[in-house]
Amino acid sequence: GDKAFAQFLTDEIQEEKKIQKHKSLPKVSGGWELEVHGTEAKLVRKIAGEKITVTFNINNSIPPSAEEDTQEQQKPDEQEPELTSTPNFVVEVIKDDTKQTLVLDCHFPEDEIGNEGEEESDIFTIREVSFQPTGEADWKDTNYTLNTDSLDWALYDHLMDFLADRGVDNTFADELIELSTALEHQEYIKFLEDLKSFVKCQ
């Protein structure tokens, strides 16, 4: 059984490498520096007295519904649809002269992706906003967290503009999806390779 499994994985790895779009991770424009630790990626940008950090994790970043819908209508000779990784991401804005970090928890709503027609709509939304002490590893649950569900739309718009002024806009979000998808695929291939070595190990 293990031999067949290893053979299957070898074929699968070859297939995945064939469809791999990026041999190296795509860059995000606007002077963002990328750090990757396993499945977590961090983009950092410094502008006039502020440091902006965007963190996301590719685990569980591929929406499940996309796969189920396409299986039924798929013709046998069609290529599998491209999976897109749309991770939640956290934006931290740190001002040099304060001890607080403004934290904005953002995500890609599933129904928004693919609605390219509407130019005006944002492809990501802010879910929660809070202040956290700068430099502390653990965030406090006792700090007030603003949920945007019940938020005055004018305040929400200002928060979105605040992010856009710091380079976190639709273009950035598109590039983040591209980067995340490439990273997810790279990690998936690495996982298959590790699994193959594990199965072959006697």
UniProtKB/TrEMBL annotation:
Record's subcellular location: Cell membrane; Cytoplasm; Mitochondrion matrix; Nucleus, Nucleolus
Keyword Cell membrane among UniProt keywords: yes
SUPFAM superfamilies according to UniProt: Mitochondrial glycoprotein MAM33-like
Domain of life: Eukaryota
Membrane topology: Peripheral membrane protein
Pfam families: MAM33
Protein keywords: Acetylation, Adaptive immunity, Apoptosis, Cell membrane, Complement pathway, Cytoplasm, DNA damage, Immunity, Innate immunity, Membrane, Mitochondrion, mRNA processing, mRNA splicing, Nucleus, Phosphoprotein, Secreted, Transcription, Transcription regulation, Transit peptide
GO CC terms: cell surface; extracellular region; mitochondrial matrix; nucleolus; plasma membrane
Gene Ontology BP annotations: apoptotic process; complement activation, classical pathway; cytosolic ribosome assembly; DNA damage response; innate immune response; mRNA processing; negative regulation of mRNA splicing, via spliceosome; regulation of complement activation
Family matches, as Gene3D superfamilies: Mitochondrial glycoprotein (3.10.280.10)
Main location class: membrane
GO molecular function (one): transcription corepressor activity
Span list, region Disordered: 59-88
Family: Belongs to the MAM33 family.
Name of this chain's protein: Complement component 1 Q subcomponent-binding protein, mitochondrial
Organism of provenance: Chloropsis hardwickii
Origin organism lineage: Eukaryota, Metazoa, Chordata, Craniata, Vertebrata
